[in-house]
What does this fold into?
Amino acid sequence: MAKRPIIARSVPTLRKALAPFRKKGDRIALVPTMGALHQGHLTLVKEAHKRAERVVVSIFVNPTQFAPHEDFGSYPRTFDSDVKALTEAKVDLVWAPTAAAMYPEGFATRIAPEGAALAGLEDKFRPHFFGGVTTVVSKLFTQVMPDVALFGQKDYQQLRVVTQMAKDLDLPVKVVGVPTVREKDGLALSSRNAYLSLPERTLAPTLARVLKASAVRIKKGEPIEMVLEEGRAEIAQAGFAVDYLEARHAVSLAPIASLKDGPIRLLVAAKLGKTRLIDNIGV
It folds into this structure.
């Protein structure tokens, strides 16, 4: 039977638990999560085991990345089943701080990211989001001090923003993006998929299908904006409210007009009923 991971809820407890690992010279990998774990998260844990002797998973539903109208209160919280899954995945430590431990009274510092964080994608629809993400992730990095941190590519803009933040702040951690894990029908795994009704779940794979078809067409040399316009129309016709379907430079997330502008990433966000889904694919 697998050993239950250490569970730390305060910074002093966390550092005390990590000290023996550091003393042995073990490499430490961090997988930041907001809980409600699914196979995508467990794939990150599996990859973490390949890159380090010790694996830490953080579980913290970060209030600063939710706007007042968003789903912070209803975001799924499944701590007991999460810990059970992490036990089976042989995680060494679960860092599950309270909001008071992460943002104590008098907390007054925020990170204001630019670059990819102002690309006009998620930031256009959730202007508060990346400030909240970079603030909490920078805290996680300084609290755990991992050698490597793993993030899913499904949240691609977030991955680019966090990678840049670690570089800009000279944080001694290697940020690794792990390919998106998908259902058999192509739907990217997400904790928010639990909100989908049965009919919505049937329609949800439209996003992945349109991304894939659009990538093939762009690779063949079809005009990018024409392909994107037709993709947006197809997504809307399926019943989504489209926030964006864009072709961007895979590193900077700057707009691109043709294949020769550099490596391309297609990114999409759309609402199906009350559930907002995002996805992306490389061209």
